[in-house]
Amino acid sequence: MKQATRLSVATTTVFYMLCGCMGYAAFGDAAPDNLLTGFGFYEPFWLLDIANVAIVVHLVGAYQVFCQPIFAFVERWAASTWPDSVFISREFRVGPFALSVFRLTWRSAFVCLTTVFAMLLPFFGNVVGLLGAVSFWPLTVYFPVEMYIRQRGVPGRSMQGICLRMLSVGCLIVSIAAAAGSIANVIEALKVYKPFSGPC
């Protein structure tokens, strides 16, 4: 598990850094959200199709992983609030699967609502940038660093402890700067906002 996590984080970091740094080096502030189509490049179609399939596969999997805590919370809350409800508690066995009408209804409604919400926001890249900036430091840096310090018993005044805290503070500063930039982009996009209009 540790090797798989290291490999996946390293690979993701390399690809994101390459896209970000090369895009900025080539286009500066005019770098589009979508490097493949952001400046009118639609040929060859097969390359764009492969890239879009990869994005769909990535987002469908990520959406499921990130939504599971929300699904579990609402389903536990509903079961404790209405313990005698047949609609909430009844499950149908279909082979090895247990299907619940409540889960199917609730999860489908949630996906539909988030899809409509995403369609309302034509500046999707700016919102994703803001969410990424807000979640980067606590989830990717702060909690893992603090867990490592506690697990390993790293003294706070040791060189390793100081370096880990400096890394955390440095990443916090980067996250704050990224969030400020994303907020500025969202404000700019809101000035010309039209619901369901597509990219701004």
From TrEMBL:
It is found in: Membrane. The chain crosses the membrane at residues 7-25, 45-66, 97-121, 127-145, 166-187. Residues 1-187 form the Amino acid transporter transmembrane domain. InterPro entries: AA_transpt_TM (IPR013057). It comes from the Eukaryota. GO terms for cellular component: membrane. GO terms for biological process: amino acid transport. Keywords: Amino-acid transport, Membrane, Transmembrane, Transmembrane helix, Transport. Its main location: membrane. Pfam families: Aa_trans. This is Amino acid transporter transmembrane domain-containing protein. It comes from Aegilops tauschii subsp. strangulata.
